[in-house]
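Tutorial sheet, problem 5. The two components below are modelled jointly, 617 residues in total.
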Amino acid sequence: MNGPFRQSMSWLHTWSGLLLSSLLYFIFVTGTVGYFENEITHWMQPERPAVSENIDQRNILKMAEQHLTSIAPDAQSWWIEFPMARSYSAVTWWKEPKDKGGKWKSNTLDLETGESVIIRETGGGKTLYEMHYLLHYIPKSLGYWITSLAAMFMFIALITGIIIHKKIFKDFFTFRPNKKQRSWLDIHNVFSVIPIPFHLMITYSGLLFLMFSSMPGIIASSYGTNPENYNGFVESVFHEPGHPESNHTPANNISISSLIPDIESRLGENTLHEIGVEGRGTAGAHIQVKHYEHTGIHEGRELIYHGVTGELMFDSTKELYPSSASKQLYSVLTDLHEGNFASIVLRWLYFLSGLMGIGMIATGMMLWAIKRREKARRTGIEDLGLNLVEYSNIGIVVGLPIAIAVYFWANRIIPIDMEGRKIWEINSLFITWFIMLIAPFMLAKKFTVKVIWIEQLLLASALYLFLPVLNSVTSDKGLISALYQGDWVMAGFDITMIVFGLGFGYAAWHLIKTIKAKETKC
Amino acid sequence: MLIASLCVFISCVLLSLSIKRHYVSIIDPSKYPSRLGTLLFRICGFLCLIYSFIVFLGLYGFALGLVYLVAIFTVASLIQTLLLSYLANWINKIF
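Model answer (structure tokens):
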């Protein structure tokens, strides 16, 4: 790493970006998709009953309470999710007692009958979203460690990228097409520089999210290494004032419905996102109420009532983040990272910034290979590493979107009543990705790199373009009927898939055109 | 919100015109802009950006307003980049 400062930074930028680029690409793709986690889950469970616009939350609450009383009378916790904002169904959640496993279970309710609806088991958007920090098939803590390391590499690549970019302002708004390597560098700069506030925020806040796993020594130095002491740390740092202490003495609790007049006088009618009881049947029981609208970038207004007396114990508007500056900074950055506050317009803008991040990583990977290919052409020395990167780039850049498309296909093709269908949906994603990764190496003797790119791009295009067709064949919520019913989430998903399909198709067509132009020149 | 977003787009146009490369490709291919012209474009561009920030601030508060400004500036810059790359020649032909 000798030479002037900028050269050293350039070296660091190249290698910190390249070493974990495939992992970063995976994290960015799954994280970006995660901004539409609820909408993806809605598409992947077409059995969910349609919800009318004029809902009466009092009725839903009554239905949900009756439902929970009949199926989970001894549960430790109850939660009711209302079909508001980005929740598209009424869902009941409950945590079973410890002697029955202590697991969380849920049911979706039909608002006309009050009965639970049988919906297909699926990983939905949640599993895709969780992959961006847990990865898959590995223990949680290892997932945190690896993603944390990748975020650190990304952060280094971003900072060094800013340092080495000599003409960061002069080159702003600049993309020169059809200029080979120059064009690749330009588009890499466009995807990196324009959304740089997003890239810095998302990477730094990602590091903050995972700091308790990646830097456990700091907590251990004050609280010790015992896991129970770690809980003490969480309790002392994140315990909101006004939240009741746990008390396991058995006691009779009030019903949630009895609090509705007071809740409505404070929050208004039909404005609830969630309502739940924690510590049911004990003297420490409390009822949590969450408003559907966010307060700026933070979560919506929250009320907490005592589960035995019904007394209001906490109102987040009065005690919103009365904490240290560092904890406030942590809250602001992590809230920005998750983007839960984002309206539909802002959510699409988040998604677009994420796509640009994906583009930045992909073009960075390609640029490395293109630069070295030029050099290899000049010197005539074939590089094994270069071949490895060139072929694996195809399987990573196009292979992953293909694998995600197959995940959606699997959701519709795997029989609804199949045991472990959720696991097989995810397996199908990784099996496909594995095939896409090794396919370029297997085809290398028969076809050129560009032809393999075209093959995978065409496959991606076909999979995305035919997904709405598959949806209309396998469910009663196809694109046309969804548009007719005004189900914009279902329709929006299908339209987005068509756009992606056309995008991949255009990329394939552009490559074919380039090859043909070269052939005519020769 | 629409007016503020439009202002962000206008600020992108003005800021791009304050850059020699883009000025030459759009306004006058035969000569570079004067220093005063460049400065004027830049000042007007930043003024538009500040105006939109104030509007977003009033509409959504500091944190959310800033998020909106950055997000819309990102889209506007991307569109401006694509327009300058592919439509600059057309604009020259038209005018």
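Marking note: Residues 344-379 of chain A form the longest helix (36 residues). Full credit if you identified this.
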